Automatic annotation (TrEMBL):
Record's keyword terms, sorted: Hydrolase
Cellular compartments per GO CC: cytosol
Name by which UniProt lists this protein: Sugar phosphatase YidA
Domain of life: Bacteria
MF GO annotations: magnesium ion binding; sugar-phosphatase activity
InterPro entries cross-referenced by the UniProt entry: Cof, HAD-like_sf, HAD-SF_hydro_IIB, HAD_sf
Keyword Hydrolase: yes
EC numbers for this chain: 3.1.3.23
Pfam families: Hydrolase_3 (PF08282)
Transmembrane segments annotated in the record for this chain: none
Alphabetized NCBIfam families for the sequence: Cof-subfamily, HAD-SF-IIB
Annotated PROSITE patterns: COF_2
Length: 295
């Protein structure tokens, strides 16, 4: 019997307009009423998770959330931080130098300060700050304090094609953001393992939530390790866990779960490792899983 469901947020829990459908809310609340633990697991900062946890009423002293793709695990009731992984100033300098070599940009998340820092104006960082309720600042990375605490870094190849996509997102959702006059990316670069330094993958956990971004975490940290920590704390065996996701930063938790589920809109690599493929995020895919396996 399944006892815990871990759900990614963007592209999974949320529709494309960043809302949760009525059917999904109903299914999650019915599962919760049956004693099933619901854990939101996201690449977003914890602030970008908490507002949805409140909407779903999963904020008790034994409710937990996974943010920063596993680098930050928190009890949503007591506010206790169960796990936090950080990158160092030296890590950031290395990552920044690689970004300059690849002709892409970088942002870093300071969880305690609820702040996203980036060296150049870009739409991706603005969107993340907006959707998570954080401040964003453009700063010279060479001027940062050496005792800085970084939870997660993101490489962003905001080339012309990706910029056009993001502008479309802004217009469809009526967001008010500053659109840079030029793109902050490399049109000739495919941002993947083959086109980035091997050392990067040796030194860090590198996840690919989209074709134009890479998330950088401390080595060994993933959503999968976050789910494992919570499951062990709750005394739940991995076979009794369902994990649902759609993109590259979900692959580890889908592999960990007794039942790994890919959304209908998931990338091919996610669908290939999943045990079950549900409907898309626009078709209430999460509700479909809960209705099929829980209710």
């Amino acid at each position: 019997m399944y006892k815990l469901i871990a759900i990614d947020i963007d592209g999974t829990l949320l529709k494309n307009d960043k809302t949760i459908s009525t059917s999904t809310i109903k299914a999650i609340k019915e599962a919760s009423a049956k004693g099933i633990k619901i854990v939101l697991s996201t690449g977003r900062p914890i602030q970008g998770l908490e507002k949805y946890a409140k909407q779903l009423n999963i904020i008790s002293n034994d409710d937990y959330g996974i943010a920063c793709s596993g680098a930050f695990v928190k009890c949503l009731g007591t506010k206790e931080v169960l796990f936090e992984s950080t990158l160092t100033y030296d890590d950031m300098q290395y990552l920044y130098n690689v970004a300059k070599q690849l002709k892409i940009t970088l942002n870093i998340l300071l969880q305690k300060e609820a702040l996203i820092l980036t060296p150049t104006l870009n739409i991706t960082s603005q969107l993340e700050a907006l959707l998570s309720g954080l401040d964003m600042k453009i700063v010279d990375f060479n001027t940062l304090n050496k005792d800085i605490t970084i939870n997660r870094a993101v490489y962003i190849n905001e080339n012309l094609h990706f910029k056009e996509h993001l502008v479309g997102v802004i217009k469809r959702n009526n967001y008010t953001l500053t659109i840079p006059k030029t793109s902050n990316g490399n049109d000739s670069l495919v941002l993947d393992r083959e086109n980035t330094p091997k050392e990067l993958f040796n030194k860090f956990t590198v996840l690919r939530p989209s074709y134009n971004t890479l998330e950088i975490l401390s080595k060994g940290v993933t959503k999968g390790t976050g789910i494992q920590l919570i499951a062990e704390k709750l005394g739940i065996h991995k076979d009794d866990v369902i994990c649902i996701g759609d993109s590259g930063n979900d692959i580890d938790m889908i592999n960990f779960a007794g039942l790994g589920v890919a959304m209908g809109n998931a990338t091919t690599e996610i669908k290939e490792v999943a045990d079950f493929v549900t409907l898309s995020n626009e078709e209430d895919g999460v509700a479909h899983v809960i209705n099929k396996f829980i209710l």
